[in-house]
Design goal:
By secondary structure, the protein is of the alpha/beta class. Helices cover 35% and strands 19% of the residues. The protein is built from five helices and six strands, in the order βαβαβαβαββα. The longest helix has 15 residues. It starts with 10 loop residues before the first strand and ends in a 19-residue tail after the last helix.
Length: 172
């Protein structure tokens, strides 16, 4: 697949995983919603779910099953504390993991937070032809992931290739 000459807006969901964030203080979710809109994509749905792997899995499963959803951006729950369970909740849903995303994210994060980046369990993959990106809960980490990796890969014009142009072939 190569780059396309025109931009194609995708329909994306944003999920914040947190026991403490609310619509009034969800800066990471706010950032992701604004960033995807600024890039020309559509927000399909936004939610905040507590750090509960079954609640996360239920919501993300619904989004994955929705043909109108092209991708999901998850922020939070990727650390090592006892309540952090985003990888345990969502990795089993993936049809295909995208190991390069987590690896690249941690390399880029190293410049910002040094060896603390090893505590990030950020990951990405695909489930039912829907892209899923799981990011740390900090707004700074979401900005790094969006600006340095995700935005370009969800833009059909990115050369030499991008995830957006794979959409028609994902269910082959």
């Amino acid at each position: 697949m190569t780059a396309a000459p025109d931009f194609h807006a995708l329909s994306l969901c944003v999920l914040t995983v947190s026991d403490t964030r609310t619509p009034a203080n969800d800066t990471s979710g706010d950032y992701l919603c604004a960033a995807l809109a600024d890039a020309g994509h559509a927000l399909h749905e936004r939610a905040i779910v507590r750090d509960d792997k079954y609640a996360m899995r239920a919501l993300v499963s619904r989004w994955i099953a929705d043909e109108a959803v092209d991708g999901i951006l998850v922020t939070g729950g990727t650390g090592f504390t006892g309540r952090d369970s985003t990888p345990e909740a969502l990795l089993p849903l993936l049809d295909k993991p995208m190991p390069g995303f987590g690896e690249m994210f941690r390399v880029l994060s190293y410049d910002e937070i040094g060896s603390s980046t090893l505590q990030s369990r950020a990951f990405a993959g695909m489930a039912n032809a829907t892209f899923l990106f799981a990011l740390p809960g900090s707004t700074s980490a979401c900005r790094t992931a969006w600006e340095r990796i995700i935005r370009a890969q969800l833009d059909a014009r990115t050369k030499p290739c991008n995830l957006a142009n794979l959409r028609p072939r994902l269910k082959e």
